[in-house]
Amino acid sequence: MVVGPINQLRNLVVPIAVGLVVGGFNPWVIGASAAAVVALLAGGLVTWRTVFYEVGEERLEIRSGLVRRSRRTIPLERVRGVDVTSTLLHRLLGVAVVRIEAAAGAGGSEDGKLDAVDAAEAERLRRVLLDRRAVLADGAAAPAPGTAGAGAGDSARTKPGAAADGTVTHFSMRPSWYLYGALSLAYLLTPFAVLATLFGVVQQAAGDQAADYVLEWVTTTDRGMLTALSAGAAGVLVLLMPVFAVVSYAFTHWGFSLRERDGSLVAERGLFTRRSVTLEKRRIRGHELLDNPLERTRRAVRLRAIVTGLGDTANRAVLLPIGPRATVDAVLARALTPFRGPLVRHPRAALYRRWVRAVGPFAVLAGVGLTAQWTWLVVVASVLAALGVVLGLDRYRSLGHGYDGAMVSVRSGSLRRRQATVERSAVIGWTWTQTLPQRRAGLADLQVTVGAGDGGYTAMDASQRRSVAFAAGVTPEIVRPFLVRPRDGAQGSADTAEG
Fold first, then answer.
1. Whose CA is closest to 156, among 170, 141, 135?
2. Among candidates 278, 84, 265, 256, which has minimal Cα distance to 168?
3. SS3 299
4. What is the pLDDT of residue 219?
5. pLDDT in tens, 436-452
6. Alpha-carbon torsion 223, 226, 228, 231, what sign?
7. Above 60 in pLDDT, residue 149?
8. Which residues pair with 82 in a beta bridge?
9. Rounded CA gap, 337 and 391, in Å?
10. Rounded distance, CA 356 to CA 361, Å?
11. Alpha-carbon distance 377 to 381, whole Å?
């Protein structure tokens, strides 16, 4: 009765405030605002009295509505994930939001949401739904509703460092980790996002008057003073970037923890909005290690899971935020299966292709500047071309793919480098793609197709001949039926692709 109206009232705060300011506290405006608040409170009462849920033997049923009634049934065997989220308001009231993600059927999404259930009941629901889903998927006898089965929980209790309830803590955030937020390019741009939001609010509230005022101030202010103020504001903004980055990082990942219980990994984080995501280990098919140039200077990396049937992977699949590589590798070795083999370097032709793409456009601009005698364009294009040389080299060094007998790993990228590692059993196909320049250079893009995560991960500009042998070594049952031995006298002795 409280959470629903307050959440909806937040969307009306700005319109009501603008109406009161512009209308000069007109009785009609005040009456309309009061009526809106009363309607929201009445809606909260109706929602509280008309929403019911029930966990049956094989399905979860959610009923809601007074005039327009709705009944949603979610088969428990289709449940893919159960997330528990608590905003600051929810935590003050001791409640939480339970979101049930299910495999979409022919009629569309089957996701369910239960807002403002008791916090203890939210944890019980998560445990029961995931446990019964696992039991139904295994075809075993289902336990009574409201009870959690043994199975995976028993195996967790045998692990070193397990708590009395079988929970194993793989990671708990340390204070020093929050400083790594200053290495994230996304968090460093937080001040610009804040300024854009403030500008939008001011423009919405004041309309064209704010723009006219700013334009008048710029045109009437002394140019020297305007330049000094602009330089000072830019300097302050640059100095605030790492501060805002650390604060934003801390708000998002405050108290981050990664635990394992009942055969699932549970990641919890957040200061004002506390979010708990549960990922069944049987659905985790691999992992991703991501970093950028700033993070690589401090040997920092982030960890993300590759999961089947998971939406919003950018947020829900996070297993560890940005942190030191050594610690991330240690947690990865305890919680999942790491990649233990070397990565194969790609041919030198791949380096030339990256230099052409990174340097070529700016070299053309520099030539145009020389022809037109535009010195500024020559200088800018030359600097960007020099940076392109470094970027191309870094992108080439990031290329690689490998197989250690159990895991297949692919790495690429520079500004956003990603190393995706998947189980050999998760590979369901291979795709070779070649452009005309790649065919001339003997290169190809090899995509590892998996039924999880993004659906495929690409080894860019790999050797076409060696990539075929690589794929045949990983999944011979898939690739070898399409291979032929070279004829007598043909160059090379490895298998080659036909046509």
1. 170
2. 265
3. coil
4. 72
5. 999 999 999 999 999 88
6. negative
7. no
8. 100
9. 31
10. 8
11. 6
Q: Residue 236: what pLDDT?
A: 84
Question: Distance (Å, rounded) from C-alpha 348 to C-alpha 173?
Answer: 41
Structure tokens at 409: 């790993």
Q: Which of 90, 101, 477, 132 is nearest to 273 (CA)?
A: 90
Two tokens, residue 48:
């509280």
What would the mean pLDDT of 232-244 be, rounded to a whole number? 86
Tell me which DSSP letter residue 105 carries: B
Q: How far apart are CA 417 and CA 251, in angstroms?
A: 25
Could you give the 3-state DSSP secondary structure of residue 92?
A: helix
The span from the CA of 326 to the CA of 177, in Å, is 13
Residue 444 in contact with residue 434, Cβ under 8 Å? yes
Q: Tokens 């909260």 label which residue?
A: 44
Q: Which residues of 202-232 are buried (b: 16+ CB within 10 A; e: fewer)?
A: eeeeeeeeeeeeeeeeeeeeeeeeeeeeeee
* Paired tokens of 63: 């009923």
Residue 421 has pLDDT above 80, yes or no: yes
- Three-state DSSP at 21 gives helix
pLDDT digits (tens, 9 = 90+) for 184-212: 988 888 777 777 777 766 666 555 566 66
Ordered DSSP codes for 393-453: HHHHHH-EEEE-SSEEEEEE-STTEEEEEEEGGGEEEEEEE--HHHHHHTEEEEEEEESST
How far is Cα 272 from Cα 126, in angstroms, rounded to an integer? 21
Q: In the chain, how long is the greatest CA-to-CA distance? A: 96
The β-bridge relationship of strands 59-64 and 70-75 is antiparallel
Q: Is residue 327 within 8 Å of 209, Cβ to Cβ?
A: no
Annotated domain spans of the chain: 3-50, 177-253, 339-346+399-499, 348-386
Three-class DSSP category at 480: helix
Residues 47, 213: Cα–Cα separation, whole Å: 46
Q: Pick from 183, 457, 173, 175: which is nearest to 320 by CA?
A: 173
- Whole-number Å distance between alpha carbons of 366 and 385: 9
Tell me how crowded residue 372 is: count the other CB atoms within 10 A of its CB.
10
Residue 195 tokens, joined: 């300024």
SS3 255: coil
Strand order in the sheet with 443-450: 427-433, 443-450, 456-463
pLDDT at position 20 is 63
The pLDDT tens digits for 4-52 are 888 777 777 766 666 666 655 667 767 777 787 788 888 888 888 889 9
Residues 6+ apart with CB under 8 A from 356: none
Q: How far is CA 181 from CA 4, 178, 246, 329, in A?
A: 33, 6, 5, 19
Give counts: helices (H), strands (E), the chain.
Answer: 17, 21
The three-state secondary structure class of 174 is: coil
Query: Model confidence at 397, in pLDDT bands (50, 70, 90)?
Result: very high
